[in-house]
Every structure is written in C-alpha cells, then in structure tokens.
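Lecture 7 notes. Example A: sequence first, then its structure tokens.
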Amino acid sequence: MRKVVVAWSATDWELKVFKEKLEGLARVVAAGRDTIEEELRDAEVAVGLPPDDAIAKAVNLKFVQAPWAGVDGYNLELLRSKGIILASGKGCNARVVAEHALALMLSLAKRVVSMDFIVKSGGWVPWTPENYLYDLEGKLVVILGYGNIGRELARMCKCLGMRVIGVRKHAQPDEYAEQVVELDKLETLVGEADFLVVTLPLTRETRSLVEERLLKAMKPTAFLVNVGRGVVVDEESLYKALSQGWIAGAALDVWWSYPPDPSAPSRLGIHKLPNVIATPHKAGWTREARRKCLEFAAENVSRYLRGEKPFNLVDYDDPY
C-alpha cells in the first residue's frame, strides 16, 4: 500500500485526521526527528517539513504537503531536482492570523501592554492629554500583501469603520478595500497610513521590502504591524524608525531569527523597545486553525492519491 509520512511527532488526534481521511488510500505513519529518514525512504507522500537529508535519500517521494501557508522553509531547488511537487496550506489559517493582526493593532492604539504594566506595578495613568488613546474609526490601514490574510483583516477593519487600502503584486478590486494597488504605489500610500500591516510571504522580491526609505515616509504617529515574515522588514531600518521616532510604534509576531539562535528574535533588541509589542510567532496557532489546516492537508493528500490535481500547488519559479 502507498505510504504517507506525517513528518513530526504527531499527537493522536492529529494522526487521526489523516488516517480517517486516507483510509483505503494509503498507510499513514508519524515520524519524529529520530525516525524521519528511515520512514521517508520508501514513502510517496510527506506532510510537514522533512529535513533536506531525509528528502535527498527518499527513493519514492513524489508529493509534499505543507500544513501551513508559507513555503519559504522548503528547499525548493532540492524538491525540483527530485521531481517532487509541493503544495501549500495557503488560506487554512487566514482568519486567525487576521484576528491576531487586529489584536496587535488594538493593543497599540489602546496602549494595552504599557498600561497593564503600569497598573500592575502599583502606578496609575492620569487623565491628561499626553495619555490620550487612539481611535480606529476613520483611520487608514494599508495592508501590504492583500491575499487571504490581508482580505480577512480588511473585512474586520471595515467593520470598525476604518479605511482600507490593499497592496499586492497584481492589483484587483475588492469589496473590503477602498482600492487595491500594486507595489509601485506603496511609498506614496504609507505617508497617509495610520497603520501599515505586513502580511507578505518571504520571497526574493519581498526580502527587506520595508526599508529605511519607506519607514521615513510614514507619519510619526503611525504604527507598523508584521504578521507576514520577519525579514520582509529590514531590521536595522526598523530599529532606527522606532528608536528615533520616525514612527510611533510596532507590533511584531514574526522575527529575524528564532531559538536556538542566541540572537533571537532580534539581534538589535527590537523586541525590548518600549514602543514595541512582541509575540512569538503564534498568530496562526489556535486549536481550531490547527484542525482546519490538518484537515485541508489531509484532503489535499487525498486528492493527490486519487489522481486529482491538488490545491495550492507551488510554482518553483514563482512560489507566490
């Protein structure tokens, strides 16, 4: 029987999602770090992110399914060289990532973190003009990366009476945005934005896209929120922007490095700045989102095994 490897130490309920969906189509096994190379050697399908060494030694691997949206962690050239196709889970957790982005926007506007710290430390915040909070109604949010997540966020922001402009590679009108424009309009737009929310994936074109020139064009009262990928924002430029007052603050869920890297999450200590709200890449990490992503992955593997075209196939020349 054909073999599908779930490439992490899956819990019982996670493994059950795949076994129930693929019953009669394939044998499903879970493989952790110690067993992945052996289990993947004769598998036809992998779900997750197997290490490159295991992929290189696999003799029958034809299809890899990512149970999440981003594919920047995969060695696309290795997969291409072995004739392996890759599919993403794009869209499976878009709503919850958008919810987290909105939570970060509200936390910045309402100064939730700083006021919580003051009150818990025995202090108080007086009713003086310098302590005014920010309204969201009527404010302009520019969403950089107007895909599944960006559109969900736009829907939520519109309910709050915000103005929304989307920015994407190929512009097309959308009911939740005043307008959707292409990247060449970005620098002009950010000068008007109250919030710049980054939901972009990482590609050759998006790396360090948000850099010094763009941040200097923003208003000193504006906020940056990043739930896309850390390195889409240039680290040194953002540090200058935050420490020199080019912008009012930032809220970041994605970073430039991750544990066990000793410099994680920011070698410049951006996460420690007083005008920064930091969360540890958990925007999409809810139980419901996890279930939806695994169910999508299982259904897509089922499509492949039945000889149907899987959804979200990755073009190795243009991954997004």
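Example B, a different protein, same format:
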Amino acid sequence: MKKIVLLGICAITVFATQAQDEAAMMKKWQDYATPADMQALLAKSEGNWDADISVWMGPGGEPMKNKATSEVKMIMGGRYQVANNKGSFGGMPYEGMSIIGYDNAKKIFQSSWIDNMGTGVMTMEGTYDAATKTLTLTGKGYDPMAGKDMNMKQTFRFTDDKHQVIEMYQIADGKEFKAMEMKLTKK
C-alpha cells in the first residue's frame, strides 16, 4: 500500500511540474509573440509619405535627386511593418519594399529590403536609441560592380510624427560614406 501511495504522490508531482513547465513555456511563447512597445514604435509610421531622395554613387560626388512615395502599414496583427516605395531612379521606374520587425526575445530589430534594381535580399539588424529617436541597422548588401557583399548601415531618425529621415551608408575598406538620404513627409 505504501508503494501505491508513493507512486501516486510521484505521479501528482510529475503532472504538477509538467503543468508548471507548460505554463512557463506558454508564457514565454506569448511574450515572444505579443506586439509591445517596439512594434508600437513601428506602427507610428503607418500612412502615406512623400519622399525627397538624394543618392550618391561614391564619396564626394554630387547627389542624384529623386522623388518617391512610400506606403507604410503594419501586418500580421501589428507585428511587422511593410513599406512599399515607388518613384524613379536615373529616369527609370523604381520600386522597393522593406519589412521591419522587432524580435521580442533577441531584443533587436530585423529588416529585409528588396527592389527592382537587383535580385538579392538585403538583411540588417539593429537597435533603437530612444534619446536620439534613431533606429540603426547594420548588415550586408550585394555590390554587383565589385562582385561581392558589402557592409551597410541604415538609420531611421524619427524627427516627429510627420517627418523622418532615412540614411543608407556603404562601408568599404573600413571607410563609411553616405550613399542615400530619404527625407519623408507624411501626407
């Protein structure tokens, strides 16, 4: 009879431990999946924007100037921001799309960028500095002229609810130069 009682107590302990483990696992998963402050930061950019774009083909040169529009929306229940950009570049129609999300577990922003000026996907990661209202991402993009990946840096400065500045920097041989600046004004 003592063995049966002991086995019963062990079984209850195992089931209770499993239930606690399952509850803890569910809590972790829920925390990971639930949009929070950083997703709300991305959501502030929802809407339609006009963009004035300057592009530098190399350090020290004069920029090419272009105009574009950007439609920004949150998807997947407010978890990710998608921006669809349209304009012209060098007299040709231009389209680009970014997806940016914040990984609640890793505590980093992650982004991907595609456009009709290439066939690759640029990916970047980074953090947000609340003091400067700037999201800084770093990663790699393919340079078809050099035939290899190059290091890139992108910043999003949230000036106010109606103005943003996005800058893209190329990094080669340890030197950084601004390749693009996009000044956005919300419509």
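Note on Example B: The mean pLDDT is 89. The first helix runs from residue 2 to 33.
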